[in-house]
């Protein structure tokens, strides 16, 4: 791994200090460690100091050259401010709360109206009965057509066409 040409570790939520082994990559032409939560001093080597400041951008607790923020005795001048917040987490609390509210509201809009309006309740159960009967008839036609064709010359697509588009 000492012959990497470019290394882009930006926006990976990395926490901690930059490892010393990164300074031993000699032919590294491009390095991007920006937008992480790195802290401590940038390892001193001619390799890591030649990259531009934007390679280390948005790492608040990172110090040392080429950054303007200097370290005193290899330590930060202030206490590290590593507060990793999962801002891109999809299933965060706000999402789960809104999903619960949406489910409850839609459930009561649909089934509450069926529960309280007799005409809608009758229409809904008539629809379910008709759907059950329709599926039963189509399955019976499908099985009958398969039993009648003993030579199996009728393709499955034709049988499905007959069964589902007959009505």
TrEMBL record:
<dbReference type="InterPro" id="IPR001611">
    <property type="entry name" value="Leu-rich_rpt"/>
</dbReference>
<dbReference type="GO" id="GO:0016020">
    <property type="term" value="C:membrane"/>
</dbReference>
<keyword id="KW-0812">Transmembrane</keyword>
<keyword id="KW-0675">Receptor</keyword>
<feature type="transmembrane region" description="Helical">
    <location>
        <begin position="95"/>
        <end position="116"/>
    </location>
</feature>
<keyword id="KW-0732">Signal</keyword>
<keyword id="KW-1133">Transmembrane helix</keyword>
<keyword id="KW-0472">Membrane</keyword>
<dbReference type="InterPro" id="IPR032675">
    <property type="entry name" value="LRR_dom_sf"/>
</dbReference>
<dbReference type="InterPro" id="IPR046956">
    <property type="entry name" value="RLP23-like"/>
</dbReference>
<dbReference type="Pfam" id="PF00560">
    <property type="entry name" value="LRR_1"/>
</dbReference>
<keyword id="KW-0325">Glycoprotein</keyword>
<protein>
    <submittedName>
        <fullName>Uncharacterized protein</fullName>
    </submittedName>
</protein>
């Amino acid at each position: 791994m000492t012959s990497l040409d470019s290394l882009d570790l930006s926006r990976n939520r990395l926490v901690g200090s930059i490892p010393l082994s990164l300074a031993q990559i000699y032919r590294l032409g491009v390095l991007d460690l920006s937008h992480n939560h790195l802290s401590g001093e940038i390892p001193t080597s001619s390799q890591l100091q030649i990259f531009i400041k934007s390679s280390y951008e948005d790492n608040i607790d990172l110090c040392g050259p080429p950054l303007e923020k200097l370290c005193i005795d290899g330590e930060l001048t202030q206490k590290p401010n590593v507060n990793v917040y999962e801002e891109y987490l999809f299933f965060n609390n706000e999402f789960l709360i809104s999903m619960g509210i949406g489910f409850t509201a839609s459930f009561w809009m649909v089934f509450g109206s069926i529960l309280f309006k007799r005409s809608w309740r009758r229409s809904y159960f008539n629809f379910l009965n008709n759907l059950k009967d329709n599926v039963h008839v189509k399955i019976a036609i499908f099985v009958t057509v398969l039993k009648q064709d003993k030579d199996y010359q009728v393709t499955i697509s034709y049988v499905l066409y007959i069964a589902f588009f007959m009505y």
